[in-house]
Amino acid sequence: MKAARWHAQKDIRIESIEEPKIEPGKVKIKVEWTGICGSDLHEYAAGPIFVPVEEPHYVSKDKAPIVMGHEFSGYVTEIGEGVTKVKVGDPVVVEPILSCGTCAACQKGKYNICEHLGFHGLSGGGGGFAEYTMVDEHMVHKMPEGLSFEQGALVEPAAVALHAVRLSKVKAGDKAAVFGAGPIGLLVIEALRAAGAAEIYAVELSPERAAKAKELGAKEVINPADIDAVERIRQLTDGGVDVAFEVTGVPVVLQQCIDSTTFEGETVIVSIWETEANIQPNNIVLSERTVKGIIAYRDIFPAVMELMNQGYFSADKLVTKKIELDDIVSEGFEALVKEKNQIKILVKPE
Which residues pair with 33 in a beta bridge? Predict the structure, then answer.
């Protein structure tokens, strides 16, 4: 079968590999649509980050080259012995977290902060940029009636956004800022709206993404090239937002997020980082602010799909391009590097 495999930084190849053969406890899926994630882009431009290169991953037992793609939907084509959660023909999405199940975090049910955390489609085990993939039964969620496969490909990134908002201190009526209106930032705006945030401000350079942020619920979108974003947010909110979300991975932005919050405000770091970021701790200490990080999601896919059926996280509003697997580098990864007007690109892996 055809698959896109990561070999090295800036080296993703379309190759013919063996189709997975069903095993006990596993579910084989014909992939319909797969989204290109910001994490995929990080691996392409600056990896390896999650891709195991020197040693096989603790859970998947794989190392590069690995099949990429972890935001995907499809339908079940085969089930292994003992599988009862789904049946052949079911439309499904995959929660792609690889966890060991035995470390302290896993024992407490917090599998997304597993000591050996990895992702199907980043850390081996197969991936969504292939015609077929196979996963453990517990990773599969049946899609409810009414969701398209395109919508299903957005469940994973929407789960990141909803998890970030859920773990923040945002409550109904609060004010929030989202720094970065890429795919995850836009989904955070929608998750904030679902959580009842009264005022949402976005900070974004791209005019196209700024317009989309406004469409999805931002009260005002600030271009940091034109104006001091922190000062503008503090003016608009009479002293700062309750919670700021950092969704850029740009070092200078982290301090701006912190400074945009009011006293006892909170900054939530959603990005995966390629470099270190400098901050001034006194800006946190003297106002008793807090900074926390989130990674991925846990126990949230069903809630995301229910919100989708209520109209949130719409693929029609967020998908800007659909491409074939053969064009994934030129029309996918390179387009996302060069064209900041792109939001979510979906790939048909056939």
Answer: 73
pLDDT-above-90 percentage for the chain: 95
With CA atoms as reference, report the closest residue to 232 among 204, 205, 201: 201
Residue type, 258: I
- Mean of per-residue pLDDT scores for the chain: 97
- Structural tokens at position 311: 């109209």
Could you list the residue range(s) of the whole structural domain that residue 47 is in?
2-154+313-348
**Domain count for the chain:** 2
For residue 338, count CB atoms less than 10 angstroms from its CB and return exposed for 0-12, middle for 13-18, buried for 19 or more.
exposed
For the entire predicted model, the pTM comes to 0.96
- Residue 63 Rama label (left phi>0; alpha psi -120 to 50; beta): beta
Beta bridge partners of 133: 29
Q: Binning pLDDT at 50, 70 and 90, where does residue 95 land?
A: very high
Domain of 58, CATH number, reads 3.90.180.10
Please tell me whether residues 121 and 197 are part of one structural domain. no
Q: What is the pLDDT of residues 315-328, one digit of tens each?
A: 999 999 999 999 99
